[in-house]
Write a structure and sequence with these properties.
The complex is a heterodimer of chains A (114) and B (110). Chain A is 0% helix and 49% strand. Chain A has no helices and 11 strands. In chain A, strands 2, 4, 5, 6, 9, 10 and 11 form a 7-stranded mixed beta sheet that branches. In chain A, strands 1-3-8-7 form a 4-stranded antiparallel beta sheet, with no helix packed on it. Chain A starts with a strand and ends with a strand. Helices cover 0% and strands 56% of the residues of chain B. Chain B is built from no helices and 11 strands. In chain B, a hairpin with a 4-residue loop joins β7 (62-67) and β8. Classes of the chains: A mainly beta (114), B mainly beta (110).
């Protein structure tokens, strides 16, 4: 009974490259949430998705960031033309239902932009 | 802006003592609150939750208190152990998302 799986655990990108972060929700969970965490800070909401739909992207930067949760496969958070300020830990959570009750978080992807 | 407010203070306690971690929130419409524990290099781990129609909830060695009048949440850990050393976050339900505070680092001295 695997939990929320994120990969890669660590990702290093040069400025200007693209970063793709993957999240497989828990079995039976169809709601996925992405959060970003800067060092010594709390998690900040980015986007909430269901299968093939973006429900709430109010926390996503307007440019360079996108997310998808296709019918088949993991959810993908994509960051184009990364800058040093994108360096952070990115966490994915999943839930069975539509509210944020019963969240389960993955172990995160630590993105370092050099 | 932030509605849950902590900025990573540090609480240092002796092993075996009780710990109390506090959190203030600002959204009076929030109806659900959660405490998470985060160890270095790991994702947040659920500890205990409470709905706004309650003022106290107990788990194993942990108790959460909710004071809606002053919009304050606290986490009490009884008989703190070295394995409790981590950063603790409170979070409130704000519709589609959780809003997190900045965390408190708990250090347990043997």
């Amino acid at each position: 009974n695997a939990g929320v799986m994120q990969n890669p655990r660590h990702l290093v990108r040069r400025r200007g490259q693209e970063a793709r972060l993957r999240c497989s929700p828990m079995k039976g969970h169809s709601h996925v949430y992405w959060y970003r965490q800067l060092p010594e800070e709390g998690l900040k909401f980015m986007v909430y998705l269901q299968k093939e739909n973006i429900i709430d992207e109010s926390g996503m930067p307007k440019e360079r960031f996108s997310a998808e949760f296709p019918k088949e496969g993991p959810s993908i958070l994509r960051i184009q033309q990364v800058v040093r300020g994108d360096s952070a830990a990115y966490f994915c959570a999943s839930s069975r239902g539509a509210q944020s009750y019963g969240y389960t978080f993955g172990s995160g992807t630590r993105l370092t932009v050099v | 802006g932030e509605s849950v407010g902590l900025h990573l203070p540090t609480l240092s306690v002796q092993e075996g003592d009780n710990s109390i971690i506090n959190c203030a929130y600002s959204n009076s419409a929030s109806d659900y609150f959660i405490w998470y524990k985060q160890e270095s290099g790991k994702g947040p781990q659920f500890i205990i939750d409470i709905r706004s129609n309650m003022d106290k909830r107990q788990g194993q060695r942990v108790t959460v208190l909710l004071n809606k009048t002053v919009k304050h949440l606290s986490l009490q850990i009884a008989a703190t152990q070295p394995g409790d050393s981590a950063v603790y976050f409170c979070a409130e339900n704000a519709g589609n998302m959780l809003t997190f505070g900045g965390g408190t680092r708990l250090m347990v001295k043997p």
